[in-house]
Amino acid sequence: MRRPSALVAVILVVGVAGAILALRSREGNPQFIAQQQAVLPVSASGVQRLLLTTDDPRPGHGGRARDARCTAGAASALGNPWTCVVRYPQPPRIRFRVIVNADRSIEGSGRGEGVPGKEPVTVSGCCVQTP
Question: Which of 35, 58, 60, 78 is 20–30 Å from 87 (CA)?
Answer without folding.
Answer: 78
